[in-house]
Specification:
By secondary structure, this protein is mainly α. The chain folds into two domains: 89 residues, RNA polymerase sigma factor, region 2, helix turn helix motif (Rna Polymerase Sigma Factor, Chain: A); 74 residues, Arc Repressor Mutant, subunit A (Orthogonal Bundle). Helix content is 76%, strand content 0%. The longest helix is centred in the N-terminal third of the chain and has 30 residues. The chain is globular and about 60 Å long.
């Protein structure tokens, strides 16, 4: 019994090491905050570890991890019970950016999109999931995904257009 538990722990560790970066990128785009994204990934991996004996036997560990990440993000947005207080700005010293200004503009614009629409936009356009895949992950209908996507993209365009007009004036 001990050998099986040790093997499961090693398998989970390997999975977490291999997928943590991808989970973090998605989490960061969802919540637009470096530290909150780290917390979100940590919570996701903790929940995944508890269920690892079931998850590891299936062929969809990646899908399950994304679903846990998304559900955790959306439930935190609904509850709004965090005891943490946001600060004005924390400088991002994380991963090197190819185009730092573009990344900052995108993250700032994503912050102004409602959480559910933001989740759909990130999954559809930045993670390249199909409408059906996003619907399944979020437990909503494909038409709801399309509506949230359209509203999210419209809001992004409004925000980005307003930013562009500020620079042109």
């Amino acid at each position: 019994m001990g050998d099986q538990a040790d093997q499961g722990t090693l398998e989970f560790r390997d999975f977490a090491i291999a997928r943590a970066g991808q989970l973090f990128r998605v989490a960061y785009l969802l919540c637009c905050d470096w530290h909150e994204a780290e917390d979100l990934v940590q919570t996701t991996l903790a929940k995944l570890y508890v269920a690892w004996h079931r998850v590891s036997r299936s062929s969809s560990a990646d899908s399950y991890a994304r679903k846990v990440l998304l559900n955790t993000y959306l439930s935190q947005r609904r509850l709004r019970r965090s005891g943490e207080l946001p600060v004005a700005t924390i400088t991002d010293t994380g991963a090197p950016a190819q185009d730092h200004d573009l990344r900052l503009t995108l993250v700032a614009a994503l912050r102004q999109v409602p959480p559910r629409s933001r989740a759909v936009v990130v999954l559809r356009h930045l993670e390249d999931h199909s409408v059906e895949s996003v619907a399944q992950l979020m437990h909503i209908s494909p038409s709801a995904v399309k509506g949230l996507d359209a509203r999210g993209l419209t809001r992004l365009r409004e925000v980005l257009d307003a930013d562009r007009n500020l620079f042109l004036s």
